[in-house]
Amino acid sequence: MKSITIYKIISVVAFLVLVFILIIPQKFNINRKQKAEECVRNMKDIYEAIQNYMLEREEDFTGTTQDLVRTNYLKKSYECPENGVGDKYFMEGDYETGKITVICPHEQKFKDHVLPENLRE
What we know:
Strands 1-2-3 form a 3-stranded antiparallel sheet, with helices on one face. The relative contact order is 0.15. By secondary structure, it is mainly α. It has a domain at 32-103. The chain is elongated. Helix content is 45%, strand content 10%. The chain contains 3 helices and 3 strands, in the order ααβαββ. It has helices at residues 6-28, 32-57, 65-70; strands at residues 61-62, 90-94, 99-103.
C-alpha cells in the first residue's frame, strides 16, 4: 500500500496555488484599470505628438503612430494594451481648427478608454 507523503501534499497544494494565481487575474480582469490608464497615457502621448506635428509643419495630420515615429514626433508606435497586437488608434488633426482626435479602437467596449475632456476639443 502506497502512502501519501508530506512532499506529495505540498506539491499538490503548490500546484493548485500556482494555477489559482495564474487564472484569477484573467478570470476577473484584475488589471483592467491598469490597462485603461496605459491606454489613456498612450492617447495623451499621441495627442501631443500630433499637436507638435501640426505646429511645426503647419498642416493637417492624417496617418498612424508609425508615421509619427518615422517623422520623430513619437519614440515608439502605440497600440491599445487591452486586446493585444493590431489594436490601432484612430487619429487625425485639423490644423485650421486645431482639433485633434485620438480614439481607442475599444472605446465602445471599454468606456474608460477615453481622453479627458480637457484634451478633446
